[in-house]
Amino acid sequence: MHKVRTGADDVHATAYAGRWVDRPVPKFAIPAQGMDAEAAYCLVHDELNLDGNPALNLASFVTPWMEPAAQKLAAETLGKNMIDQDEYPQTEAIHERVVTMVGRLFHAPHEAEPVGTATIGSSEAIMLAMLAHRQSWRDRRAAAGLPADRPNLVIGADVHTCWEKFTRYFDVEPRVVPMTEGAYTLSAADVAANVDENTIAVGALLCTTFTGQIDELAEIDALLQGLRADRGWHVPLHVDAASGGFLAPFTRPDLAWDFRLPSVRSINVSNHKFGLVYPGMGTIIFRDRSDLPSELVFHINYLGGDMPNYSLNFSRPSNSVILQYFNFLRLGRAGYARIAQAMVDNAQALTEGLLATGAFEALHDRETFPVVVVRATDPEAHDVYALSDRLRERGWIVPAYSLPPNAEHVAVLRMVVKESFSRDMVDLLLDDVRRALAGTAVARASAPPKHARVQPVC
């Protein structure tokens, strides 16, 4: 949220020696007069130079690069509103194909009737999935003559913030399992200690945001199947595959994490991450149409024709869906497998280089995901926050952060190795890490002893 400035406004002063912009231009009010398109472009373009370089941004999972042919398609489809299915029927046909392709990638069962939709991202996809599971839980409780006023959701502290947003926005009790040092994922034992007849779902992760690991998906599935058989509790398992959904099928195809697990009733994925398309797009897939209560699907006719709609957003660009279809055709399974393995290999090279310094230990899954998460072996000698700042001086965006409770004393660095991050870039980053380590060590050695520091007078 940003404050609306209602008083005096800063201005863009004269630029390019008055060639284009020869008068002050307000920054926080619409100018009284317009300007040449090239002048407006220069003002915006030049200011954006202060942003970080996407090629050096290892904080984000989001795709920063696509081929020129994809960029051409993106420009051609910018004006098509995804929601206008009657006006753009072929775009909707491609949307259906993309959802089906994703569902098949996740082993949607043949004997069921899987359904799904593209979303703005995984945050919307997760909200939609949990709304469906909450409504299904309410319907089951009402059919049994039981109260439905105290729904809860079991998740680990390793989840994305959108899960907490859901519980707060939609009045569901969050049962958040804290981390502990050495145990950074959600286990079946954690779920068993928190689940009950009021649990609308268990949310588990394939590639956690914090440590790049996998929750105990198979074990949680077995637990939930047992609870259904023994107690009659129907607790669905939702897999948040935002980051891992386009990786595990290619790096570990035999890993059962998706609809091969009977308790998994819904899966989300961020196509704009390792689906390799620009932001923003996600997908939500339900195991069967029965997992999506019909009362949550709206039928709209005022744009022409009957358009079933299940979304939080309405109007949205169509080009992300078009770009995903382009990539599926362009790369095929073999291409995605090749790219995924190359990213994992580069992440492994980065991991080995970091461990070779002796300053770090790795926390991440080194086999499945190109996400490198390390902590300092000696936090007193190497402050990861200072290292992050040092690397930022060279343009690298490498976040340092503390883990959630009860592991908040563990501070880590995370580096997401994307398709555009080559082995040469790995070597350049390692060179700068070694220099940063030396620089922070020198700075620490030259600092006065703590007892000799002069404290400011308040």
Summarize the structure.
The chain has 458 residues and is of the alpha/beta class. The chain contains eleven helices and 15 strands.
Plain-language structure description:
The radius of gyration is 25 Å and the shape is globular. With 458 residues, it is an alpha/beta fold. The chain has 11 helices and 15 strands. Residues 451-458 have low confidence and may be disordered. Strands 3-9-8-7-6-4-5 form a 7-stranded mixed β-sheet, sandwiched between helices. It has a 4-stranded antiparallel β-sheet with strand order 12-13-15-14. A two-stranded antiparallel sheet has the order 1-2. It has helices at residues 37-48, 68-76, 89-105, 122-143, 161-169, 188-192, 217-231, 248-251, 319-356, 384-393, 423-446; strands at residues 11-12, 25-26, 115-119, 152-156, 173-177, 199-205, 237-240, 264-270, 282-286, 298-300, 307-309, 360-362, 371-376, 400-402, 411-416. The longest helix has 38 residues, at 319-356.
